Amino acid sequence: MFRLTKRVIVILRVVWKYHLISSLLGFYRSFAKGGIPTEPICAPAEGWEEEGEHLRLALTELGPTFIKLGQLLSQRPDIVPPPIIVELQKLQSGVAPLPFEEINRSVTFPCECVDETTGETYSTCKQLEDVFDEINKKPLASGSIAQIYRAKLEGNEVVVKVLKPGIERVIDADLRLLRLMLPVGARLLRVKGFDPELIVDELSTMLKNEIDMRLEALHIERFQRNFKDWEKVVIPRVYWEFTNNRVIVMDFIKGPTVGSRPSLSEEQARYYANLITKAFLQMVYVDGFFHADPHSGNIILLLEDNKIAFLDFGAVGRLREEVMLDALEVFYAFFTGDVSKALKGFLQLVNITEKDIDLDSFYADLDELIEKFQAGRYEKGQGDNLARLSLKYKLPAPRAFVVLERAILLVEGSCNNLYRYYDIKEAIAEQFSVQELLKQEIKRGVKRLSDASVKLVRNLPDIIDHYSEYRPLSAQESTAERRASASYGPYLVAGIIAGIGLLFPICTSLGGLDVTPQANVFVPLVALVLAALVTLFANSRD
Questions:
Q1: Dist. CA 298–CA 290, nearest whole Å
Q2: Beta carbons of 277 and 417 less than 8 angstroms apart
Q3: CA 20 to 30 Å from 298, out of 143, 259, 317, 320?
Q4: How would you classify residue 257: left for phi > 0, otherwise alpha for psi between -120 and 50, otherwise beta?
Q5: DSSP-assigned states of every residue in 376-413
């Protein structure tokens, strides 16, 4: 109780220091009267930058829980206006590092040791210094939740990411306070559509995931699987035997970050920018699992091998296939300037019909936004994006889509860091070509077909028995009709199996799947054999 009271005093002091109550009250009351949304959708949001900056500075001072709260709210354009979003997107979690000795004492690694005298095995615990051959006590980076060190392990250079001691207690106390404070704040600010309990639940889930290093390790392994066939994209290896809920150990990848602006020829710069874009599009439109924070400091260039590497996999985005396809349609329409397609895709994305909005007004705003995008003046810093459009019309854009939009802008920024004239629209248009889209759809279709085939073979005996059973027939039906109706099922199953087998090589060819020639012969052959066996079985029962 004493700790909570002390924390409340700290929070109130920071709120007073940055004049948050008066600033946000004035802002949201102006917003509620329609002052901000009545501006042209592509006009810069001006006049409230200072209030947004005060909020950002206050959240930064209050620590990890409040930083994450700000980052979460920056992805909610339905409840947070553009000037505030712009500032919240600048939130960084970098803070002064703790002494290495304090970090070292907070981490232990269980291990088995052998007594040299008796030869008996016993359990003990080791600290960071005991586990690694050597470790640089000066951190590579220090965040509000963890610190990162460079070390050597069994002759390999590795990175060690360690949670700060006591961070779980701090986060738990802050979440308890937020459950009390946010409902009061929502009533004071009169924010419509704001569910404090839902926000705190989402924040709690986000923070609990972030303070479990094993989850980030699982993200890394999934990216490794997704990019196993990409020779030019490197994902660091995780050392699972030295990874637990408080520590993650992975390969150290040496090279300049995109943000360090390495000296490159124009050809090299364009090459790496293209590679980054294509890798990101693979994550989004093929895997539906993408890096949610691909800023220039999280991408490394391996200049000797012409490769790139991604870092920091704590924040990821996931897209259901339906959202993935709708988002694809919206972004592709932006790149091609097709307002009607963008409108259709966006309405599908937010799950509303044309009758639910002022269609003419929405179309005009969307046309203006696409025109500005085509002219290269679509900037995250001004809030002139689909998030602002959603806010103006009170549309519930899916959070995954908002995260995706931000990630695309970060990728574009990273590419422009390498080559200022790089046009990401060209790369995306190439990826979204009719041929490429057809290929991806066929891949998904083949996968669904494959899953259905496995299920069909597994349930084959039951299917045959089901269709071979006599159904109740009227006295008028002839014996021939009885036999026909009882025996058609196995032949239908045989036809399906044969069809799947014969279509397999065609689909793999059109879909660009990496399948050996032997597989393209073997699968149809097995299918035909199975179809023949089903047919023989059916004949034997006639």
A1: 13
A2: no
A3: 320
A4: beta
A5: T---GGGT-SHHHHHHHTT----HHHHHHHHHHHHHHH
| Domains within the chain, CATH numbers bracketed | 2-92+170-193 (no CATH), 94-164+212-252 (3.30.200.20), 254-432 (no CATH), 438-541 (no CATH)
Strands 307-310 and 233-234 come out as parallel
Residue in the block written with tokens 């960084």: 92
Q: Could you tell me if 64 and 167 are in contact, meaning their C-beta atoms sit under 8 angstroms apart?
A: yes
Q: What is the token pair recorded at 385?
A: 């994006």
Residue 143: exposure state from Cβ atoms within 10 A (0-12, 13-18, ≥19): buried
Eight-class DSSP state of 247: E
3-state secondary structure at position 37: coil
Single out the residue of 397, 330, 371 nearest to residue 42, CA to CA: 371
Cα 527 to Cα 109: distance, rounded to the nearest angstrom: 53
Residue written as tokens 């009170």? 394
Q: Which residues, at least 6 apart from 323, have a Cβ–Cβ distance to it below 8 Å? A: 349, 398, 400, 401
pLDDT tens string, the chain, 542 residues long: the values are 667 788 888 888 998 888 877 666 665 555 555 444 434 333 344 556 777 888 899 998 898 899 888 888 877 766 777 778 778 878 866 678 899 999 998 887 776 666 667 766 656 667 888 889 999 999 998 888 899 999 999 899 999 999 999 898 889 989 999 888 888 777 766 666 567 788 888 889 888 888 899 999 999 999 999 999 999 999 999 999 999 999 999 999 999 999 898 999 999 999 999 999 999 989 988 899 999 989 898 999 999 999 999 999 988 999 887 787 777 778 778 878 889 988 988 888 888 888 888 889 999 999 988 888 777 655 544 344 676 677 678 777 667 777 887 888 889 889 999 998 888 777 776 666 544 554 555 555 555 555 555 555 555 555 555 545 545 545 455 555 555 555 555 655 555 555 655 555 555 554 445 555 555 555 556 665 665 666 656 566 55
Distance CA 29, CA 32 (A): 5
Tokens of 51: 């209030």
> pTM score > 0.85 for this model?
no
For residue 21, give the nearest of 197, 188, 190 by alpha carbon.
188
Report how far residue 157's alpha carbon sits from residue 308's, in angstroms, rounded to the nearest whole number. 18
